[in-house]
Amino acid sequence: MSERFRMKENVIWGRRILPLLITFHLSLFTAAAQDEPEYKMEAGAGIGLVAYTGDFNGNLLKGMQPWGTLIGKYHLSPRSAIGFNLGMGKIKGSSSKADTWYPIEEPYEFDNTLTEGIFRYEYNFWAYGTGQEYRGARRLAPFVTIGLGLVHHSGENSGITMSLPIGAGVKYKIGQRLNLIAEWVFRLTPCDELDGRKDLYGIKSSGLFKNTDCYSVLQLALTYDIWMKCKTCHNDRD
Question: Based on the domain organization, do 18 and 58 belong to the same domain?
Fold first, then answer.
C-alpha cells in the first residue's frame, strides 16, 4: 500500500470520525447543562427607600427614608413565585413643608415607623434562570407583582391596617444560585392615619382607597436559592 494511499485513507476516516466526536461531545454538554439542579425556594434581604404619600406629602419621591426587608419566596415555576416579605422603615413629614394650607393651629410634624408583612405573587415576563436548568430561561427577567398584607404604624393614632402592594421590577441571575432584584412597589392602604392625622378638612369621602395614606418602596435586594428539587422527580421542563 503506497504512502499516498495511506494518507488519503486517513483523511477519509478523519472526515468521518471528527463529526461524530463533535456531535458526541455536544450531546454530553447539552445533557449536563440540562441536568443542572433547580431550586424550590430563595431567601435574602433588601435595602431601599420608602416614601409616604398623604395629607402632608403629594410627591412620590419626596422625603424618602431608609427601608429594610427580609425576603422568602417559593418557586411555582420558572415564570412565577409566591413570597412573604417582612419590612420596616420610617416615614416623616411636616405641615410647614407641605404645599397646601391645613386648618390646624400649630405646625404638625411626624416621625413614624412602619412595620409590614405581606404575601405577594410574582410573574416573570419570560422564564427566569441561567438557561442550564431550564430550556429557554434567561438571566435577566422583568416582572410584575401584587399582594396583600398588614402594616403597623406608630405615632399618634397608631394601629394596624391592610395594605395592597402593586409594583414591578427586574431580576438578574448573578450566579447559579444568587439573584439581584431591583423593584418599585406602591402600597395602597384604606387608612388615613399613617401620618397620625385624619380628615384634616372634615370632608367625608367614599371608596376604599380614596383620600387615604399610602407609601411606596424603591428597593435593591439579594437572594440565594435553596432547597434543591429532586432530579428524578417530574420537573417543569417535562
Answer: no
The pLDDT of residue 57? 82
Q: What is the pTM of this model?
A: 0.79
Res 80: pLDDT = 97
pLDDT-based confidence at residue 19 (cuts at 50, 70, 90): low
Identify whether residues 31 and 44 lie together within a single domain.
Answer: no
Total number of domains in the chain = 2
Residues 131 and 18 in one domain: no
What's the domain range around 8?
A: 1-35
**What's the average model confidence in pLDDT over 16-25?**
50
3-state secondary structure of 232: coil
CB contact at 8 A, 126 and 110: no
DSSP for 207-220? STTTT--EEEEEEE
Q: In this structure, are 172 and 132 located in the same domain?
A: yes
Q: Where are the alpha helices (DSSP H) in 64-218?
A: none
d(CA 4, CA 9): 9
